[in-house]
Each structure stands twice: as C-alpha cells, then as structure tokens.
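Board notes, transcribed. Complex of a protein with AFP.
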Amino acid sequence: MNRKAFTLARFITETQAGYPAATGEFSALLVQIGLAGKILTRDLRRAGLLDILGATGETNVQGEAVKKLDTIANETLIKVFQHTGLVCALASEEMEKPLFLSENWPHGKYMLLFDPLDGSSNTDVNMPMGTIFSVLHYEGAAGPAAEDLVRGGTQQVAAGYLMYGSSTVLVFTSGKGAHEFTLDPDLGEYLLSKEGIRMPMKGAVYSANEGNACKWVPGVRRFIDYLKEADKPTARPYTLRYSGCLVADVHRLLTGGGIYLYPAETNKPEGKLRLLYEANPLAMVVEQAGGRASTGVERILAITPEALHQRVPLLIGSGDDVAMAEAFIQGKR
Ligand code: AFP
C-alpha cells in the first residue's frame, strides 16, 4: 500500500476498518482533534506577538496557576467538539466537572478526556508542549453522567497526543498499533510519518526532574543512581533529558527508548500526573508500541480509578527499563 500522502482519515478508513473504535465517526473525531491541533499550532507559533502568554491569575482544580494558553487550549477543544454530533461529554484538566454536550446527544457516543495543554511551564519560553487525549465510548441509553468518565485505562477505545515541537505531530492508537502523523502546514493535512511505532526494549535516556530527588522514595533514588554508575556492565551511563513537558519526553522515548519517571514523593505519595487524561492515554500508546507503564507497583491501565482528577506516580517507557525501575522500587534490587 502506497503510504505517500496518507492522511489521517484515509489511514483510519483503510487500516483500522472493522476495528471497534474505527467507525466513520471515530475518523471524524480524530480529524476534529487534528483541527484543534492546527488551531493551537497557529496560536503557539505567534504566541510571542499576541497577548496570550503569561498567567490568567486564576488557579485550576489542581490548585495550579492557569496560563492564558491553558484556557485558550481548553476552549479550543470545547469549540471543535460542540455541535459536531460526535462527543457527548468532555473532561479536562482545566475543568473541575465534566462538560456534557447535550446538543450532541443521543447521536454522539464518544466521551473525550484531555489535558489541553501539557507543559504549561513552557508556554512563555518557546519550549515544546502537547495535548493529551483519551477516548471512551458511552454505552448507556440515558445520557452520560460524571461517573461514566471515571473508567479504567483498558476501557479506552483510543488515545494519543499532539506535540507542538519543531513540527506538530499527532500520535494515536485505537488498539491496532501506535501511529504518528506530521502536520504539513502548507497542505493543512496530517500525513502518516510513522506506522506501527516500535519502542526499543531498552534505551539509554532517563527523563526525571532530579530537582525533586530529595523527595523521591528510596527505591527511585537507588534506581537513578544505578543508571548513572560509570562502571555498569552496559556501555555508558544513561543520558538525562527532561523538557518539562511529559508529551515531549515520552515522544522522544517512543522513538529512541528509555524511561520517564514522575514518581511518588514523600509529601505526594500519589505523585503529580493525572491518571485519566495523562497516564492512561500515554500508557495505551506506549504499550501499543511495545513499552510499559506502571506506578512502580501496578500497571497503569489496570488501575480502577476513583476520581476524575486522580493522580498517580508514573514510570513509562521501554519495557526493560521500566521493569528495572519497578525492581528497585519494590526492593528486589
Ligand atoms: P504543567 O502542564 O503544569 O507544566 O505540568 C507539566 C507536567 O504535568 C508534565 O508535562 C511534566 O513532565 C511535569 O508536569 C513537570 O513537572 P515538574 O515541573 O514538577 O518537573
């Protein structure tokens, strides 16, 4: 099959056909996510020239300072799904409660959870950022309620992210491999750039905020120290890469292998990252690429969630690297 000029819609129609998630509406949903990515790419490329940098002065449900671009990204995602007939409920890091799109009900059976702008600390310094999304399917007849969005990661019908870097890429999985599309700004189309991504079983990169090392649980500190030991049997110590944007750091690992960690801390046993719209979607993508994602003791996708904005410790990346980290955390090494 000629992969040239393989657009998102054509790819889903021709390769995901027959797969539970890949109806025509799923293709349309992904195209809408791509539209949000185009709008945010446009805004981010000119951010320094517009009054959209800096903070809004508000704090979100997470208790974090809200950047203007957080709000713009959140509003963009809401706008691209209103009146489309595709999605009956939206949940966002930036919204305490879900938004039910009654105008799309009962036709729209998808529910979308997202971190509209991951890496907010990068907004004012032109560093990479991302949008993370998780897609659930509503099976009920009465219309969705908040609890319908609080579902385990294995119930995701699709997941992925947009990364706003030197180019804009959309990476998604609907359970049949993980695939990358690159936005061609001249065509305004996302074209297939990597089909069936396979992550190396072991890498040489670790991604963690070492500034938090004093707060890490002992097993994490011992693991990181091990990665840096010069006399290890492996060729050389691991290299540290940490961008402040989970999407960018995971995207690097997806291609070259290694491990990203945002572990439990002595004062934050649940870690920082959110389960439903950060850890679960990235875990689905990474597992589809042959990698692994856990809390250090439990597979991310197997967690039964209890709350919409629940946080979890996250270790994600190459299978062997994550398994080694788990062994240190569980006291087996
Ligand atoms: P923000 O979106 O609030 O900047 O958080 C980004 C993030 O969730 C993830 O993308 C980064 O890897 C991590 O937090 C950075 O957190 P630290 O600044 O504590 O290292």
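The chain has a mean pLDDT of 93. Residues 87 and 122 are 30 Å apart (CA to CA).
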